[in-house]
Input
Amino acid sequence: MDGLVLRKLGRRFGAVDAVLAFDLHIKPGEFVSLLGPSGCGKTTTLRMIAGFIDPTSGSIELDGKVLSAPSGSVPPEKRGMSMIFQSYAIWPNMTVSENVAFGLNLRKLPAEEVKARVGAVLETVRMSHLADRYPAELSGGQQQRVALARAVVIRPAVLLLDEPLSNLDANLREEMRFEIKRMHDEFRITSVYVTHDQGEAMVTSDRIAVMNNGRLEQIDTPYALYSRPKTRFVASFIGRTNFLSGIRGNSMIDFAGFSVPFAAIGEEMTGGGPITVSIRPQAMKLSATEMAKDKTINLPGSVKQSSFLGETWDYVFQSREGGLQFRVAAPPADVFPVGTPAWLQIDPTQIVPITD
Ligand code: ATP
Output
């Protein structure tokens, strides 16, 4: 199979399973983030891919070739991968262009080709004008751009990024996400990006692998993860959401004060037993009047809390029957002072069943 394949990958440290039965297929040219809270096993997974630590179970393959033990562990320098760390790790005694050229010179490429490739990659990371500076004369963001340029210029089979933006201040982090995305769009190097920042993962990635307790919870595009989370963990780790508990009848889910047919939700479901669903604050609408559309759920109630966040209002709405509370995100023009009676409108296709 082409690309990077993790098969039932596991790593145990004493009694701790840092990574457990992790299956993942990263396609050639794809950018995948490993996203999850501290201690979920992201870095351990990345270090196994790089070859810095051996797995205790499972295997790692690149373009059909097994890299990991037990069939013989390929050492890190023979895996054709580049890694970028939190600390920029560029050589202080070399200029920007010397740093970037280093890997190409090591591979004994002709001088003209080195010059052309260094020039092109410095342009991509917008560092051409600083090519003759030394690292001490650069800002943190500029140093990280050099580290990126140096990693991609050798055209590695896989680019591994370990929280590369975590030493930068908030504004720069935000800007650098887009730089990383732009660079990936240009070079299309198969990339694995470790982060605990969902915004970073969403901007940069084709797909995000959400990890929890050493396991893969869900892998999907940023849009699919946000709109169709499969578990409570994913629904709450990626953005904010409302959880509702219901009971599955024969063909309807009964919530406190209202019911929704299985068919309206649009997912395969069987009757009997409790169910939890997620409804995003953005997936609902507050209205001063009841809406006529028969497919929309209309819940009467009132606004209990309101905060203006600039791009949206953040309302807490309480339904009259059942007393359910919902966080609702509304556009700035939709003004509902606290205490106002209102209708909450829910499109049933936005109700997502999840596992707890
Ligand atoms: P962070 O975001 O904080 O870097 P992470 O998701 O990258 O966290 P890992 O560093 O992969 O998590 O750690 C996963 C688990 O394995 C943690 O419980 C950690 O304590 C444990 N662990 C990692 N390396 C070792 C080690 N060398 N010896 C013992 N336990 C380890």
